Structures
1.
Amino acid sequence: MMGKKKAVIVDDEAKARAALRQLLDSYCPDFEVVAEASGVAEGVQTIIRTRPDIVFLDVQMQDGSGFDLLSQLPQINFNVIFASAYDKFAIRAFKFSAVDFLQKPIEPEELIQACQKVSQQIEISEISSKLEVLMSNRKSFEKIVLPTMDGFIFVNIKDIVRCEAESNYTRFFLQNRRDILVSKTLREFDEMLSPFGFFRVHKSHLINLSYLKEYLRGDGAVIMEDGAEILISRRRKDDFLQCLKTFFPK
């Protein structure tokens, strides 16, 4: 009888790691969580050290994305199942690359199905090929679904200039000067859009770095191409400047 498959969970939220570990213990007894990590840097070292069969990987974390983690590994010789709060429309894009994706909060049935796929012993070379496709195409996911009072609006991600929190709603400002009020919090869209060049400069503001026009060092603010001037919160300033170096390499 074959032994259990080794699993590693990489997520910057302790509650999310604990919840997933409990689900695996309850519903997927063939998988043993051998380690956890709270971010990209720790995740890289943990994966190299433990050599898991599968990694449950959050998409966006405090020190980078799941894609950043994968790109820093010398080789990918394990299965990957992404877990995040992405809208289901975006999840389809991941699955086009045949890489499994679990939407938070994770449902036991979906977790069981994902683990069953891993148990089918897919060739490592095939896993690497699928991840390469996903990595090369991740920025070409085109649309996001915005739930409004009247229904749903499909918007090209590249047309979103910025998002602003309005209580439990989020207002989207688009390139054509149109704005849309959406019945979801900014926090949800922060996680959804961060892998695509967006940065939350303030608790109430998420900006698309592609539309950044000017950074005002003295004022601690940014000016967007639509003319909006947005203050950067003090605690996010260092991360923002580091993000600029990555997004706009010299």
2.
Amino acid sequence: MYGPYQKEMKIWAKYTDEIQFCCPIWREDRGLLIDEISFPISNTIELKEFNIKSITNIPLAIYYSIINFFIILKTIHSADHLHVRCPGNMALLACFAQIFYPKKIKTVKYAGNWDPKSAQPRSYRLQKWILSNTFLTKNIQVLVYGEWPNQTKNIKPFFTATYCQDEIQKPMSVRAESRTKNNSFSFLFVGTLSSGKQPLYALQLVHELQKKGFKATLKIYGEGSERTTIEEYIKQYQLDEVAFLLGNQSKEIVLKAYQESHFLLLPSKSEGWPKVVAEAMFWGCIPIVTPVSCVPYMLDYGKRGILLTNEIEKDVNCIVSLMNDSEMFTKMSNEAQSWSRKFTTDQFETEISKLLK
């Protein structure tokens, strides 16, 4: 199971008598963050995986969709509580199926971007429309990232968490001040090295800061298809002592990197609730992020971090302005930390227990 989701469902499992999954089963490693299920489940009802990435796939996709739809209907009928993770192909079928069970208690974790104004695939927009429609969808709480205007009563702002209350330490403003005095700044990228996360743009930002005379370094944690492109850029501009590709690392190593870094760079094109942003903020590491999904809300529209424009000159100037203002740096770091520490796994578990009562 996808690692972060496995950890989340482990908390749900504490407040249920029995859990069963209705989903496709992967029988090979697909290069994702996979964890073994660490809580008891009764069984897994297998669905047929499909996609419509090409015209030739459409007939098979229709056939599998019909089969899956009736399997999902039968599964919902036997359950006391339905929990759906959206968005996705199977989730779309579940959105339609749940309409036939208006009295069944339901929750939905919408793990994608809920922003009503964002450009999204039609299937995602359809799922959002069904879930928001109080005539079609009843007895449900839809957990979405961020707070959005003009939402129906089905929609509940929610969050996710990584760290517990016991991990909270004192603010690290002294550490921040000591690093700003010698004009040396450490940057961090944590995530998949894919075109959607734009790790190359993160590297280009740090390169531009180097050109302006700042002692800026970038540690890159993660793997993906863009690794080769990044390696070539480092080689072309001789940035071996500036950028460091460190691959996938343990939670403990990444945590230490958050604690030791000034800034997190995440110029991502799409997010739900970017956990790495909340994690960095938890340790006073200031996020520099594109304004997608609920990110502006997380950063209080620029008070707890920097919102990127994807125009490199503007973005570099904005970063330089903060690097040159140690008082503002410390204030922003402390505000980011104070906000993120409201969202602990302890609080997350309390909210989950309320949903299942």
3.
Amino acid sequence: MQSRFWNGEPFHTEIELMQLIQQMGFLPLLDSGIRGYSAEEMADDDCRYVVLPDGGWDWPLWKWKGPVVTEGNCVYGKFFAQKAGFISREWWPDFMNYRRATHPQPQEGSIEEAILLTLQEQGSMITRELRAACGFTGPKMRSKFDGYVTRLQMGCYIVTEDFVYPVDKHNREYGWGWSLLTTPEQLIGREACRPERTPEESFQRMFEHFHQLVPQATDSQIMKLLK
């Protein structure tokens, strides 16, 4: 994939990934449904997932998520058809403006409202702590809770602030990591979340940008990522 925002050269470092996010504005982490349009597909082969001879694994792209989120001037969450990706802070106000208009505030007394209020009161929490605080501790509750959180992320009410990893007895991090969740207002401030445009104006601006960003994409493919 090539466009005016990417020349087709794969990136090799987390710094280059940060720069690419700023250039593009919107970048899904994994398969987006549009061939070639994801951080995984744009990364050099050395940055992708590999199984090691000892049975372990290495995946530089996955490990870079934390530094990119905390230092890369972007917002991260499950924003694209319930899949994770990065949005630059330049484009975040328009994205949030449109999404909040199409994904209304959680209804009073709903589970989504309880989750959001708990997170707002605490400031930030890792997913499993938030799940326990909201009473989702029984059998098969994890996937059900994750579904509520994903819907809140799709509405731009919850974002990922960082990733927290458990450590072994040698103080080495291991595993896939836990998302440290917060609200966009807590992460970047209310003023940074408000564009001086209507939701429809924000949508049109993003829709036109996507046509230049991924010129091979159809209208329906772009809509799937934006809606």
